């Protein structure tokens, strides 16, 4: 079997596991939100603000955060007051559905309605792996460059929502927001783009609203590279790490 065939077999198996996980969690009333970004995008700080807002509003949320090493992000997110667990990937540059299912066993609080999964900081491998999510959010800081969506079309092309982070630095970074919007919509026409800033709290309420809308079954944007609802992924394959 050639490497391409192995890669496709790995992705197909993951997609089947993800579809089963999505169904099992849906029967428990749990909606999964998968957060993808490069390292340094600020997604941990922003997610912490979203979790804290949910706790303030009495929304039963939880978070699973993934890294290759350390539990630093879990410690940071736990300050929100929401239940949080760390998942160490043992060197993998992405999460897989089997890892998520195994980590949730015996832990996920029974009243959870939204589970946020903070994926490994990487826009390549994680983009090809469905985790059983209902909502996939791709985040990018203004310091990363307006051409990021064109460099990572699988990630941005599979997003139900795109978030610009660290907007307070847009001026000093010389960020061309209109060009960024143009590039996003070249790979994912019609996707909503939300501006956010963890420092000021901008966008936090909107992100929580979008997660709750997904939980409540609101029609979602259909990205061109969305996973097939029955588990067969339409995104181009990524290297298996």
Give short descriptive properties of this protein.
Rossmann fold, seven-stranded parallel beta sheet, 241 residues, globular, 9 helices, alpha/beta
CATH class equals: Alpha Beta
Q: What fraction of the residues are assigned to beta strands by DSSP?
A: 15-25%
Secondary structure category: alpha/beta
Measured between the Cα atoms of the first and last residue, the distance is 18 Å
Number of strands: 7
Q: So, CATH architecture?
A: 3-Layer(aba) Sandwich
Order of helices and strands: HEHEHEHEEHHEHHEH
User: What is the overall pLDDT average?
Assistant: 91
Radius of gyration, CA atoms, in whole angstroms: 17 Å
* Major sheet characteristics: 7 strands, parallel
The share of residues in helices is: 25-40%
Counting structural domains, the number is: 1
The shape is globular
In DSSP terms, counting alpha (H) and pi (I) runs of 4 or more, how many helices?
9
Unreliable runs: 229-241
Q: At the third CATH level, what is the topology name?
A: Rossmann fold
């Amino acid at each position: 079997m050639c490497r391409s065939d192995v890669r496709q077999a790995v992705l197909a198996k993951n997609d089947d596991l993800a579809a089963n996980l999505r169904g099992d969690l849906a029967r428990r009333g749990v909606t999964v939100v998968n957060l993808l970004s490069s390292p340094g995008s600020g997604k941990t700080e922003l997610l912490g603000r979203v979790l804290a807002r949910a706790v303030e509003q009495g929304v039963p949320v939880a978070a699973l955060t993934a890294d290759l090493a350390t539990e630093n992000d879990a410690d940071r997110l736990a300050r929100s007051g929401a239940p949080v667990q760390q998942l160490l990937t043992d060197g993998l540059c992405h999460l897989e559905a089997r890892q998520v299912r195994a980590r949730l066993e015996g832990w996920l609080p029974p009243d959870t309605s939204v589970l946020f999964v903070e994926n490994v900081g990487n826009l390549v491998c994680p983009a090809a792996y469905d985790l059983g999510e209902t909502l996939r959010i791709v985040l990018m800081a203004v310091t990363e460059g307006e051409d990021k969506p064109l460099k990572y079309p699988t990630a941005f092309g599979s997003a139900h929502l795109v978030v610009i982070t660290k907007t307070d630095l847009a001026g000093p970074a010389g960020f061309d927001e209109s060009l960024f919007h143009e590039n996003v919509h070249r790979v994912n026409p019609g996707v909503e783009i939300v501006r956010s800033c963890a420092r000021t709290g901008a966008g936090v309420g909107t992100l929580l609203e979008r997660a709750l809308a997904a939980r409540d079954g609101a029609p979602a944007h259909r990205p061109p590279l969305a996973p097939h609802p029955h588990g067969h992924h339409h995104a181009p394959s990524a290297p298996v790490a």
